[in-house]
Design brief:
Shape: globular
Strand content: 15-25%
Radius of gyration: 33 Å
Helix content: 40-55%
Number of domains: 3
Structural class: alpha/beta
Number of helices: 22
Length: 573
C-alpha cells in the first residue's frame, strides 16, 4: 500500500498543508519550516491506537497557535489525514482488499483508496486534550465501522519505522533495538545442538575461572552467604566469564567493523557517520529478512528518516542517494544536504517553505517539463549545484562576467548571500535561454529575478520570462535591464573607463581608434575586449574590477547594479 498524500491542519507550525508523496520523498527547506513536523505527523497517525483516547498522542504543544494571544485550549482542532491509494487497478494484494474492505473506497477508475484521519481537540468539560482516529469515505465523512480492527490491520500492512536525526547505534544494535532484536529472536537450534553448544561454553567458562586463584577464593567466600540466606546447597555461586546458555549468548552478539588498519571495533566505537550508516543498512537487512515474519507477507514498510546525511563525508552522502532509492517500500527523508539531493530524482524533492506565515510545498509536475528541460535542470542545478535547491531566491544573470562579479558585489554592499539564501545562476547558454530555471523556481516556490543586458538578446530574454508571470504581475517585479550594453559597459560609463583602459597596452590604444574610424561605441567595445583578453578572460576582468571596487569603496558600484542587489536581497530577507 502506498501513502500518496498527507494533509495537515493546525499541527505545530503548520496551519494547513497538503503534500504529495512518492516511493522516495525528500523534504528540503530551511530550519523550522516544518520538515520534521511532516514526518512526525505521519508517525503519530500510524503508530497510535484506534478509536478515541483521552490524553492521547496530541499534547498542548502540538496545537498551532496563530498569535501570541492564542492558547492550546482555544486553538483550532488538529487534523491529519493519510491517504493511501492504488496507482493502478488491482494493484493491492487480495489479502489487503479483503481485510480492509470495510474502509476502502473505490473511485471511478476502479482504484482503491483508504483515508485515515487523526484529530486532536480540547475537551472543555473534562479539561483534557483528546485524540481520535477514524477512517473516512471519499467525501471526507467518518465511516461507522462494525469492527475496530481496521487500524490494527492497516498498521500491519503498512508498518512505519521512524529514525530520528539522533541515531544511537549502541541502542539500535542492542537487545531492545527495533530491528536488531528481530534477528536475535530468530535464532533457533535443535535441542541436541543447543545442549552441545552450552556444554562447550560451560567448559570454556570453567577453564577461564579456574585459571585465576583469586576468583576461586571469591566464589568460596560468597558461598558462605548460604549460612544466612537459603541457597542451593551443592553449588550456590556460579561465576561466568561468558554466557553459558544459548539464549543469553545470542543477546550478547555484537557487530564489529575492522578499520583500515585491521583493528576490530564494535560499531558503537566507530565515528558518528559510520554508526548512522550502519543503522540504515540494518533497517535494509531487517526488511529483507524479517519483515514478512514480523508482520505479513503483503506488508510494505515506510521508513521516516531525519537527516540521513548526518556526520557522513560528502562522497558517502552522495552514495546514500542510491541506497535510499533501492530500499523497499516507501522512504520519507528530511535533509539539509545539497550532496544528497544531487543524487536523488528531482521529482522526489519536496521543498517546504514559508509564505506570509503559511507553510507551502513546492515540487515538480513532470507533465509540465520536457525531457530537454529536465536534462538542463539536472546538468545545471541538481547534479552540480544541489545546494541551489535550498535557496530562497535566484538571481539569473546572462553571462560569465556577471556570474563571477555579482557574488563579490553583494558582499561589498554588505549583503550576505548565505544569510539571505540567494544563489546566482547563469542562463544564457542554457536550454531555451534559462526558461527551465524559471519554471523550476516557480514549481519549488523559489523567488527569481532576471538581470539582462540592454541589447536585442536581453530584450528577447525578458519576453521569454513574461510567459511565467502570474496574472497581474509586472515583469519589472522579476527583472531589470542594465542601462548600458552590458555589465562591463555599465562600469565603463560609471567611472571605471580609465581603469579598464589601463589594462590595454599603449600600442593597442593607438590602433583601436583608427581601426574603428573614431566610432566611440566601437572603440569602447574593442577596448573592453582587449582588456579582457590581456587579463585572461571575463572572469579575470571581473576579479580585477572587484579589487578596484574594494579600493574605491562600495559607493563606486554603478547605481543600476546597486538597485538590483538591493531588490534581490529584499526578496531573500
Amino acid at each position: 500500500m502506498k501513502l500518496v498524500e498527507v494533509s495537515i491542519e493546525n499541527f505545530r507550525g503548520i496551519r494547513e498543508l497538503e503534500i504529495p508523496l512518492d516511493a522516495l520523498t525528500v523534504l528540503i527547506g530551511e530550519n523550522n519550516v516544518g520538515k520534521s513536523t511532516i514526518l512526525e505527523a505521519i508517525r503519530l497517525v500510524l503508530l497510535r491506537g484506534a478509536g478515541s483516547k483521552r490524553g492521547g498522542q496530541f499534547s498542548e504543544y502540538d496545537f498551532h497557535l496563530v498569535d501570541g494571544n492564542a492558547t492550546p485550549q482555544t486553538a483550532n482542532p488538529i487534523k491529519i489525514i493519510l491517504h493511501f491509494a492504488e496507482e493502478r487497478e488491482n494493484e493491492w494484494p487480495e489479502a489487503i482488499v479483503q481485510q480492509l474492505q470495510d474502509v476502502m473506497q473505490i473511485d471511478g477508475t476502479g482504484r482503491n483508496h483508504v483515508w485515515l484521519q487523526s484529530t486532536g481537540t480540547f475537551n472543555k468539560d473534562a479539561a483534557i486534550f483528546e485524540t481520535k482516529s477514524a477512517f473516512l469515505n471519499s467525501k471526507g465523512a467518518e465511516l461507522t465501522l462494525k469492527k475496530s480492527t481496521s487500524l490494527y490491520l492497516l498498521q500491519r500492512f503498512v508498518p512505519l519505522f521512524f529514525l530520528s536525526a539522533l541515531r544511537d547505534a549502541s541502542q539500535e544494535f542492542g537487545q531492545k533495538g527495533h530491528f536488531w532484536s528481530g534477528f536475535l529472536k530468530s535464532i533457533k537450534l535443535p535441542d541436541d545442538k543447543r545442549q552441545e553448544i552450552e556444554k562447550t561454553l560451560q567448559g570454556i567458562n570453567k577453564e577461564l575461572i579456574s585459571g585465576n586463584e583469586g576468583l576461586t577464593k571469591v566464589i568460596e567466600k560468597i558461598a558462605d552467604a548460604k549460612k544466612l540466606v537459603p541457597l542451593n546447597g551443592d553449588a550456590p555461586v556460579v561465576m561466568e566469564a561468558i554466557p553459558t546458555q544459548v539464549f543469553d549468548m545470542a543477546g550478547k552478539i555484537q557487530v564489529n567493523l575492522k578499520s583500515v588498519s585491521g583493528a576490530k571495533l564494535p560499531i558503537s566505537r566507530h565515528g558518528e557517520g559510520t554508526q548512522s550508516l550502519t543503522v540504515l543498512l540494518l533497517f535494509q537487512a531487517f526488511i529483507a529478512v524479517n519483515l514478512a515474519e514480523a508482520y505479513t507477507p503483503e506488508s510494505s514498510p515506510i521508513l521516516a528518516l531525519e537527516e540521513p546525511e548526518a556526520h557522513l563525508h560528502p562522497s558517502a552522502v552522495r552514495s546514500l542517494g542510491a541506497l535510499l532509492e533501492s530500499m523497499p517500500g516507501q522512504v520519507f527523508v528530511s535533509s539539509h544536504s545539497g550532496d544528497l539531493v544531487s543524487r536523488v530524482p528531482i521529482t522526489s524533492i519536496r521543498r517546504i517553505y514559508k509564505c506570509e506565515d503559511d507553510t507551502r510545498v513546492g515540487c515538480l509536475d513532470l507533465s509540465k517539463f520536457s525531457a530537454e528541460e529536465l536534462q538542463e535542470i539536472d546538468d545545471s542545478i541538481r547534479l552540480t549545484r544541489g545546494s541551489y535547491l535550498f535557496s530562497r531566491s535566484w538571481l539569473l544573470v546572462e553571462g560569465e562576467t556577471e556570474s563571477h562579479i555579482m557574488p563579490f558585489l553583494f558582499e561589498l554592499m554588505g549583503f550576505s548571500q548565505d544569510q539571505l539564501s540567494i544563489s546566482i545562476l547563469e542562463f544564457s547558454q542554457a536550454t531555451d535561454k534559462g526558461e527551465p530555471f524559471i519554471k523550476l523556481a516557480k514549481a519549488l516556490g523559489v523567488q527569481w529575478f532576471m538581470m539582462t543586458d540592454s541589447d536585442v538578446a536581453g530584450t528577447g530574454y525578458l519576453e521569454r520570462a513574461k510567459k511565467y508571470l502570474e496574472p497581474g504581475e509586472d515583469i519589472t517585479a522579476h527583472s531589470a535591464r542594465l542601462p548600458r550594453l552590458d555589465i562591463e559597459h555599465e562600469f565603463w560609463y560609471n567611472g571605471f573607463d580609465g581603469f579598464i583602459k589601463s589594462k590595454i597596452t599603449s600600442n593597442q590604444a593607438r590602433e583601436i581608434t583608427p581601426q574603428y574610424k573614431g566610432n566611440v561605441a566601437d572603440v569602447i567595445r574593442q577596448t573592453i575586449r582587449s582588456a579582457r583578453k590581456n587579463l585572461g578572460g571575463k572572469p579575470a576582468l571581473a576579479q580585477a574590477l572587484v579589487m578596484e571596487i574594494r579600493t574605491r569603496g562600495p559607493q563606486s558600484i554603478p547605481a543600476s547594479i546597486q538597485a538590483i542587489i538591493k531588490t534581490v536581497s529584499a526578496m531573500g530577507a
